Amino acid sequence: MFKSVLTTGITLAILAWVLPAVGFNSFVTLIIASIVLTILYTLVRPVLKILFLPVNVITLGLFSGIINIFLLWLSTYLVPGFHIQNLIIYGTELNQFWTLIFVSFLIGFIHSLLKKLL
Predict the structure, then answer these.
(1) How many domains does the chain have?
(2) What is the reported pTM?
(3) CA distance linking residue 32 with residue 23, whole number of Å
(4) 46-75, pLDDT tens digit by residue?
(5) Deepest in the core among 6, 32, 39, 100, taking most CB within 10 A?
(6) According to DSSP H, which parts of the chain are helical?
(7) What is the β-pairing status of strands 22-23 and 92-93?
(8) What is the DSSP-derived secondary structure letter of residue 62?
(9) What is each CA distance from 46 to 23, 52, 71, in whole angstroms?
(10) What gap in Å lies between CA 13 and CA 24, rounded to an integer?
(11) What is the domain extent for residue 57?
């Protein structure tokens, strides 16, 4: 569990450094956000995947992305000081949904790279 929290914390720190849309108020907020996100992904995500299994089968697995986006949004709601604002890419402002999709994709990508390294 500690390794997952460490990997998630490093991933969120990298995203906060690279993207101006992802931010934290303090280092303690980063630690709390990584713990909350790890708990949500470890405990709540499997339950939601089982509950929404018929929808996931019908959409050929695309609904798993919606579950990840919901958990990321829930973590920003639960942790005060952790925020994901609208992202501007090439002059086009993405709304909250598309920003969460982009950040969720980057979290998955960086998280998988860090798992291989650690």
Answers:
(1) 1
(2) 0.83
(3) 13
(4) 999 999 999 989 988 888 888 988 998 999
(5) 100
(6) 2-18, 27-39, 45-51, 53-58, 63-78, 96-117
(7) unpaired
(8) T
(9) 27, 10, 12
(10) 9
(11) 2-117
pLDDT tens across 13-46, in order? 888 898 888 888 888 998 999 999 999 999 999 9
Query: How confident is the model at residue 43, as a pLDDT?
Result: 92
Q: What tokens appear for 74 in the block?
A: 């829930």
Asked if 21 and 103 touch (Cβ cutoff 8 Å), the reply is yes
Q: In this predicted model, what pLDDT tens digit does every residue of 75-96 receive, in sequence order? A: 989 999 888 888 888 888 888 8
Cβ atoms 65, 108 nearer than 8 A:
no
User: pLDDT by residue (tens digit) across 107-117?
Assistant: 888 888 888 88
Q: Is 81 helix (H, G, I), strand (E, B) or coil?
A: coil
Are 107 and 19 in contact by the 8 Å Cβ rule? The answer is: no
Start-to-end CA distance of the chain, whole Å, equals 13
